[in-house]
Amino acid sequence: MLNDASPVMVVTGASKGIGYGIAKHFLANGYRVAGCSRGQSTISDINYIHTALDIADENEVRSWIRSIKKTYKRIDVLVCNAGYAPANLLMTMTSGQVLNTLLQTNIAGSFYVCREVSKVMMLQRSGRIITTSSMAVGLHEEGTSAYSASKSAIVEMTKVIAKELAPLGITCNIIAPSMLMTDAVEELGKDIIERALSKLTIKRPVTNEEVCNIVAFFASPESRCITGQVIHMGLVC
Q1: Residues involved in catalysis
Q2: Rounded to an integer, what distance in angstroms lies between the CA atom of residue 29 and that of residue 27?
Q3: Is residue 197 part of a domain?
Q4: CB under 8 Å to 39, separation ≥6 — which residues?
Q5: pLDDT at position 115 over 80
Q6: Distance between CA 31 and CA 214 in Å, rounded?
Q7: Per the domain annotation, does 181 fall within a domain?
Q8: Domain-located, residue 187
Q9: What total number of domains does the chain contain?
Q10: 219 CB-contact burial (10 Å; exposed 0-12 / middle 13-18 / buried 19+)
Q11: What tens digit of pLDDT does each residue of 8-53 get?
Q12: Could you tell me which residues come within 8 angstroms of residue 194 by beta carbon, excluding any fewer than 6 positions away?
C-alpha cells in the first residue's frame, strides 16, 4: 500500500472506457485513486476504492466526496470523466427524456462533482481539476445538438471556475478526446466510426496512453500556470 504522501486522484466513470484507463494508469504511477460509476468496481488494486453512485444525484455526490476527504484527508486531482453519450439523433427526433438525461448527467453531474471537490481543494489551497469535453463540440456533427450542447457547457463551466479558483492555487482544464475505441464506440458500427474518423484532422482513434498523457500534463506540478485551457485531441478547432 502506498503511503500518506502519495497523491490522491478522483475519477468519475471509472468502471470502463476512458475513466477505467485513467484510473489504471495512475494507479500504476503511484497514485491512490477513488473512482465511481453507476455499477460496481472493475478494478482490483489495494490503492483503489470504488463507490457505486449516480453523479446526477447531488446528495450522493456530496456524501461520496466527503467520504474521500475523510479517508485520504485531501484530493490532489479530479478527472471528471463520467458522461452520457446517446446515439446520434436529429434535433427533431430527440426526446425530452434523452435531453434531460444529458443535462442531468453531463452538466449537473459534472457541476456537482467539481463543486464538492473544489471545497476540499480550497481548504488545502491546491489541486487540479480536469473535465472532459468531446470532439463533437468542434465537429458540429448533425445529430449531436443535445450532446454537443452538454459538452460545450462543460467547457464554459470549467473556464469560469478556473477564474474563480485560480487565487487558491487550483487549476481547471478541459480535455476533448477524439474517438477512443471502447466497447461503446465499437457498438456504433463500422460505417459510423469511419465517417467520424474522416472528419478529424488526425484520422485515427486516440489511445488510452495518449489520453493519460494529457491528463498527466494538466496534473503535473509544473503546469500550475496553465488553467482554463482546452486540449483537442486529433482535431484542429
Answers
A1: 147
A2: 5
A3: no
A4: 15, 52
A5: yes
A6: 16
A7: no
A8: no
A9: 1
A10: buried
A11: 999 999 999 999 999 999 999 999 999 999 999 999 999 999 999 9
A12: none
Q: What are the pLDDT digits (tens) for 57-71?
A: 999 999 999 999 999
Whether pLDDT at 184 is above 70? no
pLDDT on residue 186: 74
Q: Locate 230 and state its grid cell.
A: 482546452
How do residues 124-180 score in pLDDT, each as one tens digit? 999 999 999 999 999 998 899 999 999 999 999 999 999 999 999 999 999 999 888
Domain span at residue 68 reads 8-176+206-232
Q: Quick check: 202 and 144 in contact, CB under 8 A?
A: no
**Domain annotation covers residue 91:** yes
CATH code of the domain covering residue 20:
3.40.50.720
Residue 22, amino acid: I
Candidates 101, 10, 105, 118; CA nearest to 64 is: 10
Residue 103's alpha-carbon distances to 100, 143, 150, 154, in angstroms, are 5, 16, 6, 10
d(CA 56, CA 38): 10
Position of cell 468542434? 138
Q: In terms of residues, how long is the chain?
A: 237
Q: Is the pLDDT of residue 88 over 90?
A: no
- Measured CA to CA, the distance from residue 217 to residue 223 in angstroms comes to 7
